[in-house]
Structures
1.
Amino acid sequence: MSIKETLIEKLKNKNARIAILGLGYVGLPLAVVFGEAGFHVTGVDPDKRKIAALVEGRSYIPDVKTEAVEKLVKAGRFNATTDFSVLKDMDAVSICVPTPLRQTGDPDMSFIISAMDELAKYMHKGMVVVLESTTYPGTTRELLLPKLGVDNGLKAGEDWFLAFSPERVDPGREDFTTINTPKVMGGITEACGEVATAWYEGAVNIVHQVSTAEAAEMSKLLENTFRMINIGLVNELAIMCERLGVDVWEVIDAAASKPFGFMKFTPGPGLGGHCIPIDPLYLSWKMKSFNYNARFIELASEINTNMPRYVVSRIMEGLNERGKPLKGSKALVLGAAYKPDIDDVRESPSLDVIGLLRQKGALVEYHDPYIPNIHHEYDGWKMDSVKDLMKAVKEADVVIIITNHKVYDYEAIIENAKFIFDSRNATRFAKSGKNHEKVERL
Ligand code: SAJ
């Protein structure tokens, strides 16, 4: 039997030994899915705290139950280590490491490169490697193929197999998880795609195979660029509607009454999270090397990035109408998380709004039930979430709703506040919320 046939057989009968590099919100759920499918899984991560927790059978990812980890550890089907040398005994390796942006706005490939450099030491015939980290088209072929294969004298598609499969984890989502979200898979060669598909089909419900790694890399960027651009569109619509004296929320709800050919997005104070504001910039960055300007991405990014400043200008106008300068006014920001009902503050527009308010001399406090304290990475300031929410609401000259957490009692907030700027239309659910004289909306 060929190396390919032997490996496919090991994968199909679950004898193949699996390693997951990077045990974060993507890697740990994936490790559990492979373990529960019957594979033996080794998790590898340089973070000693993560490994110590997993060795004890404890999960640190909200979407992964400790019982699931404990059961696999006890069954001897999952172990975790900081020691990359275990890779020499592995048949299949999935790389799930972060791909953030540098402060310059360029891709930060350092996590992929360090995982790749470690793996390169242990590459051998009969291995399949899948990269899951969202990245620019060409990464798998231009970075991983030479370093892991060529430099080790291994021929991809014959001696070893390399593919890309974009992660589609939406933290906190319960309806679509790692096992039931279709998985796109694209190989460096046809044989690579065949082997990687055979591997993942042993664990997830649906694998959607494409012809190349580049097609798989690009499909992920389309998914998140689509979102970013449409959010930029409705953000610009909010600005236009304000000039026209039209309620943008009413307009969007009306358009959404169309049962086909329309997809609802809502305006907000800006784009947060580690996916939507970042992934499209990997594509526009790559296109620069082809002397191509990705205009839609650049424009949408410009609009979205400007939303915190637009929100602050609207707050200044609102205070001005009430005879109050922003400078010296008490501003209470509700919500630091980048989206409702989660504890993730990465790239949150709240931080930008708070920074701008502070720059303009407002006396700023914030409240977020999920985030006890925040700090600004570049400006260096730190704040704690206020302890007594209603006291802070009563004392504030303006209450600014940035993240519409479900736990907030918007009726009580309206009752106790002097002036509310609602950037999420969160107060629509309050009895007196609609068109309340205290409330201004984006
Ligand atoms: N946002 C708006 N208006 C909208 C939708 C989102 O302003 O209509 C803002 C949010 O407030 C947030 C940012 O955009 O600040 C991103 O929100 P998101 O709903 O896209 O949530 P994310 O960042 O968690 O995106 C993830 C992505 N998942 C993956 O990349 C695997 C994305 O592809 C999913 O579509 C999204 O979750 C989801 O649908 O929940």
2.
Amino acid sequence: MTKKIAVLPGDGIGPEIVAEAVKVLDALKHQGLDITLEYGLIGGAAYDDAGTPLPADTVAISKAADAILLGAVGGYKWESLDISVRPEKGLLGIRSELNLFANLRPAILYPQLADASTLKADVVAGLDLMIVRELTGGIYFGQPRGVRTLENGEKEGFNTLVYRESEVNRIGKVAFDIARKRQGRLCSVDKANVLECTELWRETMTTLSADYNDVELSHMYVDNAAMQLVRAPKQFDVMVTTNMFGDILSDCASMLTGSIGMLPSASLDENSKGMYEPIHGSAPDIAGQNIANPLATILSVAMMLRYSLNEAEMADKVEAAVSVVLDKGLRTADIHSEGMTKVGTVEMGDAVVAALDKK
Ligand code: IPM
Ligand code: MG
């Protein structure tokens, strides 16, 4: 049966990198992938068009789809808008509307890029880490939230960090299941020494671990985890953490691999329906210049093939094509080093498609 893909390019470099990922999907269509694409607006682009960062028809298209491909949202242009209609609200809204609670952010170092990392090559060589971030709860969504004026006239901003046992169990199971298929080591990251909410998180993970005797569970405070990620990242196999800690740690982990422009992500619901997006943002400073790295988005297509479309072989092919292109020495500016061939966004996408067609 034909699978439907919702394509939401978004803002900044979003449309450019998504166009390259769509080229890859089109090439796979020629190799037998049975899909149709439907486009929708999200973020600032949607605000400009419809006055909201998440129009109802974007939600409808996405709900009806088997998988969603997203570029990125946000930009200077919308920074002074009220927080309720900022582009980021579109992204948070769609994650929440579709119940995409499990965010998988793999950080894999392509051996060809060992020199692109700011860390010493031996610290990162062979890195293969999976961060499992809770995506629809925690302080990002907790109520009450806002800015209020106190009796003395001073303003006070407040947000709420809240997790139910059921939410921790749900993300915990995803993480344990992933760890089980990898090296069998799961590190749960919290701030249980200070925050009651994450003390409960820790207890819940420990209780859950009884169902996973084949997985070794450890716990780490988030500050230490940030340090360990740059000190000795290969000690980790799978990390599971809250929405905000996962946001921060995944950016940190991305630099281990040389560039945030390389890292894909999947956000899944209970039934493995998913939204796929690069973990980087909309980079408005380089938008429209054909210099953004499309590989994170192309690798997000590989994750889509694997997790939502049940096309593991095609996923392997896409990842292999990326590797071939890197072997050839092609590099966008963010991963460029001496002796390599600097290419633009479009040329990089074309090169991946060419490598794919050869398979
Ligand atoms: C991410 C981004 C988003 C987040 C922003 C754009 C709302 O940083 O996907 O990591 O904080 O989740
Ligand atoms: Mg982030």
